[in-house]
Prior knowledge:
Radius of gyration of chain A: 22 Å
CATH class of the largest domain in chain B: Alpha Beta
Number of strands of chain B: 11
Strand order of the largest sheet of chain A: 1-2
Strand order of the largest sheet of chain B: 9-2-11-10
Number of strands of chain A: 2
Distance between the termini of chain A: 60 Å
Structural class of chain B: alpha+beta
Number of domains of chain A: 2
Radius of gyration of chain B: 21 Å
Number of helices of chain B: 9
Number of helices of chain A: 5
Oligomer: heterotrimer
Largest sheet of chain A: 2 strands, antiparallel
Helix content of chain A: 40-55%
Strand content of chain B: 15-25%
Helix content of chain B: 25-40%
CATH topology of the largest domain in chain B: Alpha-Beta Plaits
Strand content of chain A: under 5%
Amino acid sequence: xxxxxxxxxxxxxxxxxxxxxxxxxxxxxxxxxxxxxxxxxxxxxxxxxxxxxxxxxxxxxxxxxxxxxxxxxxxxxxxxxxxxxxxxxxxxxxxxxxxxxxxxxxxxxxxxxxxxxxxxxxxxxxxxxx
Amino acid sequence: xxxxxxxxxxxxxxxxxxxxxxxxxxxxxxxxxxxxxxxxxxxxxxxxxxxxxxxxxxxxxxxxxxxxxxxxxxxxxxxxxxxxxxxxxxxxxxxxxxxxxxxxxxxxxxxxxxxxxxxxxxxxxxxxxxxxxxxxxxxxxxxxxxxxxxxxxxxxxxxxxxxxxxxxxxxxxxxxxxxxxxxxxxxxxxxxxxxxxxxxxxxxxxxxxxxxxxxxxxxxxxxxxxxxxxxxxxxxxxxxxxxxxxxxxxxxxxxxxx
Amino acid sequence: xxxxxxxxxxxxxxxxxxxxxxxxxxxxxxxxxxxxxxxxxxxxxxxxxxxxxxxxxxxxxxxxxxxxxxxxxxxxxxxxxxxxxxxxxxxxxxxxxxxxxxxxxxxxxxxxxxxxxxxxxxxxxxxxxxxxxxxxxxxxxxxxxxxxxxxxxxxxxxxxxxxxxxxxxxxxxxxxxxxxxxxxxxxxxxxxxxxxxxxxxxxxxxxxxxxxxxxxxxxxxxxxxxxxxxxxxxxxxxxxxxxxxxxxxxxxxxxxxxxxxxxxxxxxxxxxxxxxxxxxxxxxxxxxxxxxxxxxxxxxxxxxxxxxxxxxxxxxxxxxxxxxxxxxxxxxxxxxxxxxxxxxxxxxxxxxxxxxxxxxxxxxxxxxxxxxxxxxxxxxxxxxxxxxx
Lengths: 130, 258, 389
């Protein structure tokens, strides 16, 4: 095979680079990972999130995505949750009224997970956070 | 609507699936369809088949008369005050000559010639901006409001080329440094999207009249054009009104009493 | 076939290096624009489209113009264009690529570009423009590549490719028609609202595009010994001349309609462009330069004696290209937008960063076209060498 050796070396380097993040994660990366400690709302606001905490942790991005379409595009402003409770659909006027510290709540996970949602390019974070 | 319904079911399905794995929490979808999650309009919401506005220019005669409307609108919607040609405005005052260029008249009555006119998005029945938008970021609601979805806008500015009324503004830069006092209840915009008057759809949906209507102390009327007993229809019946560039066939929803 | 692009003399590599350098510098300006926003351009609330979209418009024409060699060759079996056909197709690829880049640099939120596909909107002409431009890029890549490959193998192109050839010929008209529709359906812009816009676009494209192609062919003759053939040059020059005459004729139709009807709104853009309005006269020198150059190019091209003079022809073509570029790459857009919906005049001057970003796009197109032409010329030469042996 012409250039056989060079091709094999090239392939090895390529596959190695491809797998690097996974390998890193399996080793040192995940050992150092600690779930970030979020500042949860103080009573009496600690019980009535729009959905259950566990569910929100997994699905809040999807929910917010749907919320924005419902309120902006469909003019539906009321969200009735799985317990039959009603909430105004609004990031600034509902979510952030209880979770009033973006730095201690949103940013904590987002920074750890290295995601930068662009919500705050338009939406105003409550006082105290930048 | 169909699409949001589908997403919504996905969401509910996801919630139900979460249950199967024994997560703590109350049954979601299993508790019966009537208990949610679902979405609905607020019972407070003002609704109409076709929103329209009537501006009484006999009462709002000067730029000073119009300024409170501008201030009300721009402060509630976090509209920046940019002192260049790349400025942003939702409602503003201009002359008859500029507002109604095809209906200019020689030797106009001095009163009208010097009158100021509150100009804003006309929320046309056949909006060219909606026709040209490639992403449906600007769209028409069933109640006639021409709405902007800032999340979806890609900033191509085709809508600005399409609008015959100069009602649209583009965020050439980050608007936040130019907002004097932020209203925490409403978002700002980001760099690179187009914005304009939304007939205060967010206020209507929560049972409030548009900000400029409230600030006008009765000089601006707002109501359902299809309801012949509405305030706007009454005003149109009793007064001579004009609209901007009617010959273009866009059917503006803003009328001016002369 | 691409390996042909890797074999070149120092002049070839120097040119590529120069282009890459230009792209890198201009890329820096683009990064600057991404950070600051389009505020670094000369655009404004009134003139909301500027130099970028104007270049898009001009280059769609250049892309479509390849059809002026492709059509006679495939539909009329005009064999003299055989050598030019592949150049026309490859130039179209570069031009379409530049068109797309000009759209990207013009967007306020380029990272959301995919929304056009995620939320397809058939009532928006921009949606169709995206479709036809992508389609045209694909068609030319396919047709150019397959026919060149066949030529290299000394076989006739496969039969199935003719379907795509004929499709691409019709498609070429569609891309410029759709681009004209971007403008001519807008109710509030007098200068654009004219049924002849698409025809004007096509006529200016069919003179300017082949003129650019011929100039590149002349350059190739000097640097790569590629000769399109005397007859091919003469025929193409004839096509260019007819198209330019039609182009100027169409423009005069606009002038007649506006001024004989005497409708102020229709006259306003032409008045602003040629004599200035409300004391705003930025465009006046440009538009008179256009008028003089356009007439000059016709004087130099119509008489066969002057047109067939190989020394003079490149100059005549350059004059024609400049004239059409001022008309379509500057006047059309600025004339249309500077007269605002309030019948006031807002002038527009592109800024330095704006021009640099545009230069970067042009350099990218030049890079792609250089590489593709290198492949085409390389294959030709390989075949000639074989024949010589």
